[in-house]
Structures are given as structure tokens and as C-alpha cells.
Write a structure and sequence with these properties.
This protein has 241 residues and is α/β, with parallel strands linked by helices. The chain folds into two domains: 139 residues, Nucleotidyltransferase, domain 5, CATH 3.30.420; 65 residues, no CATH class. Helix content is 21%, strand content 22%. The protein contains four helices and eight strands. Strands 1-4-3-2-5-6 form a six-stranded mixed beta sheet. Helix 1 packs parallel to helix 3. The protein is rod-shaped and about 95 Å long. The chain starts with a strand and ends in a 17-residue tail after the last strand. Keywords: Isomerase.
Length: 241
């Protein structure tokens, strides 16, 4: 699935005829700047990346946001970098500066860290191939609070993938089982017990709270076998045999 891409409008309604002729690609000489971020909820888990791309004067050129499926956090970080590189190549921007809050990825691209993960190595090699096609490239690390826009776009991608409000692509959410009974459920209906004479010798034993008892019903009354008497106010669970 290609990333969601938004860019400023190039044409207005007054010059609609200008859209009929496709202009030749223009190679830009100035630097563009990209803030990218990636994340995963679960690591691995539902993941996505986001990127904000601006020109040299700070004007927004594009916002990238893509859901990646069940991936790791580092996979998502590399996917964000690859998205920025591809944008620069596709739109003829030969000079790109990237800011990321992933220290691992930044130092691997800079050659300060080795890439040992078999999952990240293909992404690293693809990033290097795309970087080699540019005339200029720089990458630097920044703390997350300086990368808020990219973080927002990455979370929007994950929200869409997890089918939260306003999202599109669903990811199944596991259902957590709860023990019976729960507070949210209605309590079991109290059961009326048959009157029985008190034993002559000793008081009948009182079963433990989790004891399994056997009995039968007659005329809507539960009769418990074994001479067991339950105190008043006890709730029981009946399993039909």
C-alpha cells in the first residue's frame, strides 16, 4: 500500500487548461528537509511511519503517512527514511536533509553502528542505494519532542491500520477472556433450598467456596446430596449433567 501523501495544490480553478499539458520534471537545486518517525504498538505489532517534508524556507511540501502491518519499531523507522528518500527522487530534489529520533538508524546510516539484524539489513542496503542517487544527503538525530509532526503522522497511520475512529485498514483485536462471573454481568439467580431436619449428632459440614457439589432439582427446588447444608445467601453455579 503506498503511503498517504498530501501536497499543496499546484493549480487553481482559474488555470485549469494548464493542467492538460504535463510539464517536464524540474530539478531543484536547494535542499529539502524531512522529519521522519516510525513506531510499533507491541514491537512487533501494528506499525506505521510518518514524515513531514519541507523546502529550504520551511514551507510544507508533503506529509507522508503509511500503515505497515505487524512490524517492529526499527523496521518502521527505516520505512520512514525510505519514504523520504523516495519522495526526493520522485520529485527531483537531489539534496535531502533528514531528521529522525531513532539513534540506532541514524548511526547505522552514518556508518557508526553495524547492521546485524537480518530484518533491517535489506532496508539499510536499499536506503544506501537511494542515497547514492542523490547529489547531497545528511541525516541527524533529534529527541522525540523535536519530531512531533512526524510522530503524529506515524500514529495516524497506526490508528488507521488498527481501525480506530476515522481509520480504514483493520487489524484484528484479540478478545480478552474474563472469568465467570464478572462485575459487569448480572449475578446468578438465588436458589431456594428444601428444608431438611437438622441432624441429631453433629452439624452438617459446610463445603468450601470452590467445592463441587452434586444434587438434583424437584418442583423448582435444589436438593444437594451428601447431607451438605449451605448457609443462607450463598450463590451457586448449576451445571446440567
Amino acid at each position: 500500500m503506498p503511503p498517504r501523501l498530501t501536497t499543496p495544490s499546484l493549480f487553481s480553478a482559474s488555470n485549469l487548461d494548464a493542467q492538460q499539458t504535463t510539464p517536464k520534471p524540474t530539478t531543484h537545486s536547494s535542499w529539502i528537509h524531512a522529519h521522519c518517525d516510525g513506531g510499533a504498538r507491541g514491537n512487533p505489532g501494528p506499525s506505521g511511519y510518518g514524515a513531514l517534508i519541507q523546502d529550504n524556507n520551511g514551507a510544507v511540501l508533503a506529509e507522508l503517512s503509511e500503515f505497515l502491518g505487524m512490524r517492529t519499531n526499527n523496521y518502521a523507522e527505516y520505512s520512514g527514511l525510505l519514504g523520504c528518500l523516495q519522495y526526493a527522487l520522485d520529485h527531483n530534489h537531489p539534496r535531502l536533509k533528514v531528521v529522525s529520533d531513532s539513534e540506532l538508524m541514524v548511526k547505522q546510516i552514518q556508518g557508526k553502528y553495524q547492521v546485524k539484524s537480518p530484518d533491517l539489513k535489506p532496508l539499510y542496503e536499499e536506503a544506501k542505494r537511494r542515497i547514492a542517487k542523490l547529489d547531497g544527503f545528511e541525516i541527524s538525530h533529534a529527541l522525540r519532542h523535536k519530531n512531533k509532526d512526524a510522530d503524529r503522522l506515524a500514529n495516524e497511520a497506526m490508528d488507521r491500520g488498527m481501525k480506530r475512529p476515522g481509520s480504514a485498514a483493520p487489524i484484528p483485536t484479540p478478545i480478552k477472556a474474563t472469568p465467570y462471573p464478572t462485575k459487569a454481568e448480572a449475578p446468578p439467580i438465588p436458589i431456594a433450598f428444601a428444608n431438611r431436619p437438622a441432624p441429631a449428632a453433629a452439624a452438617p459440614p459446610v463445603p468450601k467456596a470452590d467445592a463441587m457439589l452434586r444434587g438434583f432439582t424437584r418442583d423448582g427446588v435444589v436438593h444437594i446430596l451428601g447431607g451438605v447444608t449451605l448457609p443462607d445467601g450463598v450463590f451457586v453455579k448449576i451445571i446440567r449433567e
